[in-house]
Structure formats: structure tokens, C-alpha cells
Amino acid sequence: MKLSTGWHSERLGQDVAVARWGEGGTPVLIFPTAGGDAEEIERFLMIDALDELLTAQRIKIYSVDSVAGRTLLRQDGTPGHRAHIQNQFHSFIYNEVVPAIRTDCADPQIGIIVAGTSIGAFNALAVLCRYPDVFTTAICLSGTYDLLKWVDGELSDDFYHSSPLHFLPGLDGPQLDVLRSRFVLLASGQGDWEDIGESWRAANALGARGIPNRMDPWGTEWAHSWPTWRSMLPKYLDEFA
């Protein structure tokens, strides 16, 4: 069921792995956590949790290495360099991964759902807001949406353009018009290591610009952990795929 591939991205200056699970259905691009790779969701049993949807060919799952997240975690280079890699990572998704997904699906116009957990949720929200021409729905779980601390508070052009909390207030024109026809699902537990305030902040930023979204609070028994996300993601993909 799994297909692993990859290529050298000139935008990112390195080889990047891409993995796929499933044979048919709506394409879903899942971003890893900050330090994760393309196969993280298999090791942490998310693919098992999604087996019913995969077997029914309702979804086809794709994932990629967390290139920008690793750069942030390691605090590589200057803050400007880290922000540049984040911006380039989104460009890599749009200009390299999206065409590969559409070729794999044999449909050059097919819309793609994006999803992610923690910093992966940030990336899911960011690419939907930046590229609503290709992404239709973002499922954002236990998200961290303000990455300013990871670039030492330096609000460079690269950071601004990659951060929805910062660019949404000034967004206008055709991109916003299309974005208002998309949908964002934000969910967060309220247990250990969760910060539900991050999700409410993202929901408020989207709502202020008229972008359809829903915030789902889960209870205090739901921690910032894979068991929580394995319960959340199948539920939401069953709803939106």
C-alpha cells in the first residue's frame, strides 16, 4: 500500500522524501510534527487509524519530510535563514509536491485536503491560506500557529509571507476571495502540553477575514500526543473527505 519516493529540491537545497498510502480517493497531504519525516505517521500508527478510509478508497494519503520544522528545532543559521527555509518549504509544497500528487491521481485539477498536528497544523493552515487554488480544506490538530519565537522575534519578509497570523490581516483581492470558499477545521485538546489558546487565536484571525472555519475544543483528558491525534484525524477525514 505504501509507496516511498523523493527527489532533490533546488528550492530547499536537499533531497526530500515523499510517501504515499492508498490507491484511490481524495488526496490528503499530512504534514509531520516539527522533527518528523515522511513516514512518521506510519510509525506512530496513524495509517492504522485511517485504515478503514484507505481500504474503502475514500482517501489517498501523502506525507513529506519536515524540512522547515527541523531547521527551526535545530535553530540552524540565522533567524533570517530559518524564515527563508520555512518560506521555501511552502513553495516546495506548491510547486513540486502538488504537481506530483496530481500526476499520481491522474487529475491535473484535483483539490487536495491538508492536515497536520502541532507545527504540522501550522503548515496545513499556511499552505491553505497561501494557495487556496489547490487546497480545499485544512484539518489542523493541536496547532502551534505563531512561530515568531523560533526566529528570535525577527519579522522578515520570508517570515511574514509564511505566517497566516501575520499576513491574513492585510490580505485582500482574488486570493482572499478564493480563500473564503475554503474551510479550516481547528481542534485541540485541553490536557497535558496542549495550548488551546493557539487554536482560538487562529480561528479568530480566520473569522476576522470572513474565512469559514470551526474550532472544536476537546476535553482535559486529551493530551498533546499521538493517541489524541489518532482519535481526531479519522473523525474529521470521515467528515470532510
Give me some keywords for this one.
241 residues; alpha/beta; Rossmann fold; 8-stranded mixed β-sheet; 43% helix
Explain this structure to me?
The protein is of the alpha/beta class. The chain has a single domain (2-240), classed as Alpha/Beta hydrolase fold, catalytic domain (Rossmann fold, 3-Layer(aba) Sandwich), CATH 3.40.50.1820. It is built from 11 helices and 8 strands. The chain has an 8-stranded mixed β-sheet, sandwiched between helices. Helix 4 (67-74) runs antiparallel to helix 5 (79-104). The chain is globular.
Main sheet: strands, sense, barrel: 8 strands, mixed
* Helix content bin: 40-55%
What percent of residues are in strands? Answer: 15-25%
Structural class: alpha/beta
- As laid out across the biggest beta sheet, the strand order is 1-2-4-3-5-6-7-8
CATH topology: Rossmann fold
Query: In the CATH hierarchy, what is the superfamily?
Result: Alpha/Beta hydrolase fold, catalytic domain
CATH class: Alpha Beta
By DSSP, the count of extended strands is 8
What is the H/E string? EEEHHHEHHEHEHHHEHEH
Overall spatial form: globular
CATH architecture verdict: 3-Layer(aba) Sandwich
Number of H/I helices: 11
- Extract low-pLDDT stretches: none
- How far the N terminus sits from the C terminus, by CA atoms, comes to 19 Å
Quick overview of this protein structure:
With about 240 residues, the chain is of the alpha/beta class. It contains eleven helices and eight strands.
